[in-house]
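Sync notes, pocket subgroup
Present: LS, DG
LS reminded everyone that the earlier model was apo-only. Rerun requested with glutamic acid included. Inputs:
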Amino acid sequence: MFNNNTYKYSNFICFDAELTNSNFTQKSTPWEMALQQLKKAADLLNLEEDIREILSHPQREVQVSLPVRMDNGKIKVFIGYRVQHNNARGPYKGGIRYHPNVSLDEVRALAMWMTWKTAVLDLPLGGAKGGIVCDPKTLSQGEIERLTRRYAYAISGIIGPYEDVPAPDVYTGPQHMAWIMDTYSILKGHLEPGVITGKPVEVGGSLGRNDSTSRGVAIVVAEAARKLNINIKGATVAIQGFGNVGSNAAIIMAKEYGMKVVAVSDSKGGIYNKNGLNVDKVLAEKEKSGTVTTYKDAEKITNDELLTLDVDVLVPAALEQVITKDNAEKIKAKIIGEGANGPTTPEADEILYQKGTMVIPDILANSGGVTVSYFEWVQNLERLQWPLEQVNKMLEQKMVKAFNDVYEASKKYKTDMRTAALTVAVSRVSQAIKLRGIWP
Ligand code: GLU
């Protein structure tokens, strides 16, 4: 409805991911995992204690109570968060997720990852994340709108085009962004499109934003294949998660890169056909029945089985911590392109690195979304609209440059791509902090 790209949504909401956290084998929390990753990169960089101390603490954390009049006439209070991790390089930037498992710990980790993501891509932005604890599948459209507007009102004092610019994340999409922009604009007394990105194109969204995360994943997977001498045309790929990121990745990889999509999944399970799935037909099935699992021309598999299929490329495009020490050894893919945020635990990272699997980390692999968000923000500030070709070309240039920066760092520090990406990001953010200094 709101996108100009290949995939049309039957629903008014566009989902960024579709799995539940049911298969968590959680040892450390996401925030502990983020701190562990930071420490590894900081050690390699010999980062001074002062900077580590600053980076280990989000600059601001806000929790809000959101009273919402439900359709049955009763008031229900929801809890929302906005965590602003760092703004040394520019306004805070990062999505808002709606999920029953949202917690302050998770939002905090996601906010830190956004700081690294914008820095790896060398965007003049910082990192933040927001979330509301709710199950959007049980809410009506009216309830979701009231909840979203109440959240926008509650955080209106700490967001803004030069302060903090939210965007979509899990279970939020263009329509939510339009409501937030509208609420914020009413409060300010004038239209302010630059307060949020990922908006419908009709109200200031950028062309190409909707499938930009998936396009970015495809771009860096193709770069990785080049480095590993794998022919991307005909390479097999399994994609976990069939929300906005997973489904658009399937389309772009199959149609633009000639890859063979052999498996996809959603929260109900997965499907596999070693000869390749017809992605258009799988999409049509998902639109019709709400799940890919009813697609006929394929074998049924579980989400766990999908991860260990014999494929060239694996794209986890759902939620955190699905690749763990329990299944990492069994993974056969040569390249993992992390469409989701935080899908691989640090223990699994170590196992995969020893095995020689190239893991393109989330902060690089899925940064196409925030990169086009950045383009959208620039267009909004200038009151311009760029053609789709320009957006996609600039996205490709940014992603290829970032991939190569990280690849070089992995050679320089003799480390895995995640730690390499973190060294690139942490050193850029640290430089900004040092140059700006601490005041007052
Ligand atoms: N939620 C997306 C992410 O995790 C997009 C963030 C943005 O565009 O600001 O990267």
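DG: Confidence is low (pLDDT under 50) at residues 1-26.
LS: The domain at 6-202 is CATH 3.40.50.10860 (Rossmann fold).
Action: DG to write up.
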